[in-house]
Amino acid sequence: MKLIKVAAAVLNQTPLAWDGNKRHILGAIADARREGVSILCLPELCITGYGCEDAFLSRGVHQAALQVLEEILPATEGMIVTLGLPILHHNAVIDCAVMICDAHILGFVAKKHLAGDGIHYEPRWFKPWPDDLRSETVVAGKRYPLGDLFFDCGGVRIGFEICEDAWVAKRPGGELSQRGVDIILNPSASHFAFGKHEVRKRFVLEGSRAFGVSYVYANLLGNESGRAIYDGDTLIASNGRLIACGKRFSYGDWGITAATVDVDLTRMSQARTASFQPRLVDGEGDCVRAEFNYPELEPERPGEPDDGFAKSAGVKEEEFTRALSLGLFDYLRKSRSDGFVISLSGGADSAACASFVALMVELGIQELGLARFLEKLSYSRRLADAKSAKEVIHRLLVCVYQATRNSGPVTLNAARGVAAGIGAEFVEWDIDRLVGEYVDKVSKAAGRALDWKTDDVALQNIQARVRSPGVWLMANLRNSLLLSTSNRSEAAVGYATMDGDTSGGLSPIAGIDKAYLRRYLRWLEKIGPEGLHPIPALAAVNEQQPTAELRPAENHQTDEDDLMPYELLDAIERAAIRDKQMPIEVFREMRVLYPHYGAQQLGLWVERFYKLFCRNQWKRERYAPSFHLDDENLDPKTWCRFPILSSGYERELRALRAHLAGLPA
Questions:
Q1: 174-210: pLDDT as tens digits
Q2: N- to C-terminal Cα separation, the chain
């Protein structure tokens, strides 16, 4: 029995924040040392931050990263530690994990497979490293091995799969297993998406089983650079069994998850496996050796791995709550803003955004305590002497209800009730006179009176646009972030007014479809997050049909009358945009999924979707930054690129209409 204590660290880093990133790395190393850890895995590119984007192509960034690495080395004495950073080699930028043993650099392992789909653009900055290639790089005048390497530290063999390396069909772990590796470290920068924790758990478990190793997975934490949120997943498995799972969505700057593994057990597991075929070669030029003494350890009773809410009946709702709340908190403090302002309409979208601010405060204080929570926002004098979570919410969040003659008491009471229910400051003002003045000016310029029969969209839009200047002014006065409340379903069809309800510096729910958001709000009203409480005031929002409330009251305007049923809209969007199907294919799929709608009506809705989607790409290009919460969204800056100008599927829609002509009404 050879027992070794290993650990995976999570870090809440910020691109190019050299001092802060170093402080978090040193904090994690110190915590690991206190726990008696011998081998510590930290996340991918943790020195620079993962989200540096084109700054990775700056010589100064590489020089600073190497300087920080040198500053960290003394803290690793008596430990084996891996850190992530970019290395410039032969005029190519390589995503590397540096292996440090007892305060000495052993070498740099290069990432083989780059993430270039979904929200990832790694091939823009990095070059993939070929299999079985080894080179050298120079750091501070010394030469170190670089490339496809593994390490023998005190007789224990350690290899790497760097993030995407573990997601591909031909994982490096198979080759490492044949070389007799005992432990595989996976330093990752894997963004959060619904259900992704379970996917990671599967490849960590299967990697440890199939390769006959102990597997240590470390990830980033928090809103690192604006759009992507990292859940801070840490997983440790050995021989096909999960032995440790860290808490996700922490508000801390760092954290570690440690476990004791038995390398003799995994070695004998390989020996017992008939299909295991080691690579029996002499020399092993890709193995870097170093002396290291592991402390004698006593066996530990394994605990039950638990990330805090994995067994909850509402896992997606719990993930949504925690991911978005943590994303808001990091965006707030990293932008050094003093709070949030929301144009609270009394509808689902703005009520959700307001609720998330309150949940952000309550979850943060629940974990950190009031003093530490406020310490993270110590730049803001507004919060200096707050005495409770309710007081923090009231000082952080202003909700503004802006009425016109088309607004009704239902939405006003709902907005007022939600603000009171979560403890936000509530402001109400009337903008009808301002709207009237704009309409009068334009009527005179046009030489005719504007009328709802001929100028419907223009008269709706002016109301939304007049709401923007006042709420922007409120945000500017308070040094606060104005939150745009548009959702993904609206973004798909452009059902939003540019420079109106899309106004804001951050659009937190632009990646969430309206049908799911409404289900979530019903859950939040009646159940709420584990360890907190529901928000009963949302009942006044949930019992309404969604409405823009921009037409006269006698029109009884609803979103779904203007567009189509939201569940259908979201299904069409996924088939058309995610699955890249043509209109007639989408129509056929919708007939199967929604047989209760007539063929002609379905055909009209499918055509409406394609026309509106194509016509409104320019709007999606102008949306404020949004959080990436689902691995399929419409953000043209991270996931869904589409031409601003196109034919609008003219030929394909003609084919759909011809097909419909042969079907019964």
A1: 999 999 999 999 999 999 999 999 999 999 999 999 9
A2: 75
